Write a sequence for this structure.
């Protein structure tokens, strides 16, 4: 068991769905069948269920954490949940699916490798399914698992499954990033195709959900080609033992850095070679995404937080005029033409001024709207803006880490928007 | 082509180091909350990795209820000396003496909730603008929605409805006058991850975490150790058991579990087979359905 544990990797996935499509039951089922619910948790939700007068144990109580939510029977915010099998550790970003919670879905999707999208077998693909898929795609998720739930209520009919497949394929062609869509017919309530292959659906030749989650290949999703190292912090011990030590601490945002590699520091453009790569006291031959390391250079050059180390022959784009898709997060502040905000991109913070509001997207019809340019909370669209200094970036499609940014209100410090560079 | 994959512990380590460095970079005076428990020990160990070969660039802060297991204080002092960091201690007793906190009375009296008062007073006194905590989202349901960078208003309060969205790894530490942050680098770790990491890295942990013989009583379904602060009431029977602790907190409300696990290897095996959460042995969480949520709103860790 021990050896297995060390060889475990990690899958982050997001689930979106409304109260009725059985999302909480599905998560409860995954936890239950992987023995991830503990006795004291079960006991606590049993008691709460009784107090509320629920007939059965309400597995949704396991996932609805805060008192305000329990009282109102809704989920307000992204909740993170954890379970593991001997193969993988799973982090679920569990988000409510109502239209007013687009920003939560964006948040959950931003760090996910896979999106789990629930479809009620009785209803097929609905507006909400399209919205979830659009957001997953917008945030660069490459794998979607469409779970056709409540198959028990439609007699486990293959035709229902086929219909969802057709409906989904109709609009999936418009999605840009998703490279793999898997359809799994299941019943979260009865446990069909969750851990074990269901005997009720012999026509389904695919794997049950848990097997899929354990085995979906995400190794090639990250960018291991374009080497990017945003400097987070400069380590200077000022001690007798390490008198001249100067290390650049950061997390590799893409590609690979090896000892001896020639690098260029941006924005200065000075070049040097990597003399050492360290993780704590331990020396390493190379570092790759998403490792946090300390890089030492052969030459003394002036580098500080917000600078970026790259390879001389593979440099990111550099510009003060940027074009991006954004999701607006604030309910108190509106996006305005000419508006000034702070932009946080990798480890750099600069000022940004909006030069154009290009269009808004209706997340239900997926249509562009070039007339209505008023961004309220949960609105998604495209903008252009100018920054106070050059930003070193890749397109979001190419690299999630160097293609993403947030906009911050300089006065209230609230996070206003999430953006993806084009 | 070479396979560039990290196992889950390496990924969690990289993430925690990133968060610790963001804290150093975005705040002027952060403190690291150090209780001597395993989570804060792991966090401190990660901090030493994050800034090596320099010293950890922030002091350790211990909010001391005065109801400690002696092993905890011994371990804390040794640890602080080894890492060469400053230690700031906030004493709950001082808050009580000043009249800003009042001792609970009754059978299950505990100073656990009073820690919030002392913590806020310590933050104030030391001018901390951020405090790093070892809290994990898997610990308790109110923590599942906690952020890495958790915003607290000028009263130290956590408002679950007014937290900043955290998108990608772009942490926004901007704040107004008097506001501050609690930062949780171990957010995505589970109890199992912590133990596995300790084992993989060979991190020394206090002896309380490993099986030893101890006099205990059973109270409210928990095994409490007999200490200077916990004595048996009438009808409570003292018995000797082989126990260990899954969490180390205030001695008055931290329950022991019967165990034979005497080293990290055995503890890992035991945790993986366990059917009860580690907070199941904490009386402070059993007080009400929303006990943790309420304490957090009042400024708890």
């Amino acid at each position: 068991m021990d050896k297995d544990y060390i060889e475990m990797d990690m899958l982050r996935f997001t689930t979106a769905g409304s109260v009725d499509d059985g999302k909480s039951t599905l998560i409860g089922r995954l936890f239950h069948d992987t023995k991830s619910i503990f006795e004291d948790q079960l006991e606590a939700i049993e008691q709460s269920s009784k107090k509320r007068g629920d007939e059965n144990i309400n597995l949704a109580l396991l996932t609805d954490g805060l008192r305000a939510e329990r009282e109102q029977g809704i989920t307000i915010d992204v909740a993170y949940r954890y379970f593991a099998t001997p193969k993988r550790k799973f982090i679920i970003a569990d988000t409510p699916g109502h239209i007013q919670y687009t920003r939560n879905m964006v948040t959950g999707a931003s760090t996910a490798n896979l999106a789990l999208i629930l479809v009620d077998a009785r209803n097929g693909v609905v507006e909400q399914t399209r919205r979830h898929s659009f957001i997953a795609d917008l945030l660069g998720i490459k794998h979607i698992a469409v779970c056709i739930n409540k198959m028990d209520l439609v007699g486990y009919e293959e035709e229902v499954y086929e219909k969802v497949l057709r409906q989904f394929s109709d609009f999936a062609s418009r999605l840009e990033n998703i490279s793999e869509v898997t359809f799994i017919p299941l019943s979260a309530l009865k446990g069909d195709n969750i851990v074990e292959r269901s005997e009720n659906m012999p026509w389904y030749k695919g794997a049950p959900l848990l097997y899929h989650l354990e085995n979906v290949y995400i190794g090639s999703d990250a960018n291991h080609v374009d080497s990017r190292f945003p400097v987070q912090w400069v380590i200077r011990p000022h001690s007798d033992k390490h008198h001249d030590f100067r290390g650049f601490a950061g997390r590799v945002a893409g590609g690979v850095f090896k000892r001896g590699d020639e690098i260029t520091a941006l924005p200065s453009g000075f070049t040097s070679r990597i003399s050492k790569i360290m993780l704590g006291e331990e020396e390493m031959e190379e570092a790759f995404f998403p490792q946090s390391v300390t890089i030492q250079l052969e030459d003394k050059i002036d580098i500080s937080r917000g600078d970026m180390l790259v390879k001389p022959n593979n440099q990111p784009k550099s510009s003060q005029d940027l074009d991006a898709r954004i999701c607006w997060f604030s309910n108190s502040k509106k996006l305005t033409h000419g508006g000034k905000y702070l932009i946080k991109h990798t480890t750099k913070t600069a000022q940004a001024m909006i030069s154009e509001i290009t269009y808004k997207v209706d997340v239900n019809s997926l249509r562009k709207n070039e007339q209505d340019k008023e961004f309220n909370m949960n609105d998604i669209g495209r903008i252009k803006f100018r920054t106070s200094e050059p930003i070193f970036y890749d397109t979001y499609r190419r690299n999630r880490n160097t293609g993403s940014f947030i906009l911050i209100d300089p006065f209230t410090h609230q996070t206003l928007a999430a953006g993806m560079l084009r | 082509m070479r396979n560039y994959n990290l196992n889950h512990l390496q990924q969690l380590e990289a993430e925690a180091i990133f968060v610790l460095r963001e804290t150093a970079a975005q705040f002027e005076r952060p403190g690291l909350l150090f209780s001597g428990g395993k989570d804060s020990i792991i966090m401190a160990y990660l901090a030493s990795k994050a800034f090596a070969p320099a010293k950890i660039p922030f002091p350790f802060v211990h909010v001391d209820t005065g109801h400690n297991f002696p092993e905890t204080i011994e371990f804390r002092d040794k640890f602080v000396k080894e890492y060469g960091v400053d230690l700031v201690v906030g004493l709950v007793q001082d808050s009580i003496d000043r009249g800003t906190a009042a001792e609970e009375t009754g059978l299950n009296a505990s100073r656990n909730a009073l820690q919030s008062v002392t913590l806020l007073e310590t933050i104030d006194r030391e001018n901390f603008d951020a405090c790093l905590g070892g809290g994990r989202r898997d610990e308790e349901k109110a923590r599942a929605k906690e952020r890495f960078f958790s915003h607290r208003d000028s009263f130290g309060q956590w408002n679950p409805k007014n937290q900043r969205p955290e998108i990608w790894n772009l942490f926004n530490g901007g704040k107004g006058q008097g506001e501050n942050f609690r930062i949780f680098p171990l957010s995505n770790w589970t109890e199992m991850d912590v133990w596995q990491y300790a084992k993989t890295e060979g991190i020394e942990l206090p002896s309380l975490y490993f099986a030893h013989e101890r006099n205990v009583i059973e109270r409210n379904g928990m095994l409490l150790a007999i200490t200077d602060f916990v004595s048996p009431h009438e009808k409570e029977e003292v018995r000797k058991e082989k126990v260990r602790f899954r969490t180390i907190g205030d001695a008055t409300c931290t329950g022991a579990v019967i165990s034979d696990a005497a080293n990290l290897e055995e503890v890992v095996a035991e945790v993986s087979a366990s059917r009860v959460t580690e907070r199941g042995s904490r009386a402070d969480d059993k007080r009400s359905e929303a006990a943790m949520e309420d304490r957090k709103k009042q400024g708890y860790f």
User: Anything to note?
Assistant: The radius of gyration of chain A is 24 Å. Chain A has three domains: 2-215, 228-310, 317-421. The mean pLDDT of chain A is 90. The CA atoms of residues 249 and 294 of chain A lie 4 Å apart.
